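Subject: for your reference before the review

Hello V.,

The reviewers asked for a structural picture of the protein, and I figured it would be easier to keep everything in one thread rather than splitting it across files. Below is the amino acid sequence we used in the manuscript, unchanged from the supplementary table.
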Amino acid sequence: MVVGLTGGIGSGKSTVAKLFAAYKNTAIYTADEEAKKLMNSSKIIAEKVIVEFGNETYKNGELQRDFLAKIVFQNPEKLAILNSIVHPEVRNHFQNFIHTNQDKLLIIYENAILFESKSNVLCDVIITVFASLSTRIERVMERDHCSKEAVLNRIQNQLSEESKMIQSHYIIINDTLENTKNQVKYIHNILTEKR
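And here is what came back from the structure prediction:
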């Protein structure tokens, strides 16, 4: 069973994925991490990114992440172009991951832009992780050492929390670690029929 795991930036998707990873019958695929790897290893992505965003996007074959981020996070159209280049490759990579993890009961597909990239169609069940806006801003500022304005820019480029929750089968309220652990256990039990 493929389980989509999404939520806004700073909601705690990675924390929830780690909690699911504790179960031996579960495999985790983190789209953001894999996209970063693919952007440095895929010639197809590199060629398309250079055409769209210029030669400065790669130096000695390595993606200049900060340079690209400055372009796309202030321009929704440019972000959409980047996503249209990267996400088909991530989707193909994920299909291979499913194939190599057929022995697992659950495959968790962690993807911040699950709905925006239309990757929700690959999932049997969808979980959205929710945290308050103030908590999310605080977490991202601390994690990425950036300004509140930079975080809000990134949030504005994502689908609203309400829209994600309406389209989800389960919602995890990520307020305290203990509460989140209990919710993960409950959902894992339902999905693997250990009620």
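For the response letter, the relevant points are probably these. The radius of gyration is 17 Å. The chain has a mean pLDDT of 93.

Happy to draft the paragraph if you're swamped.

O.
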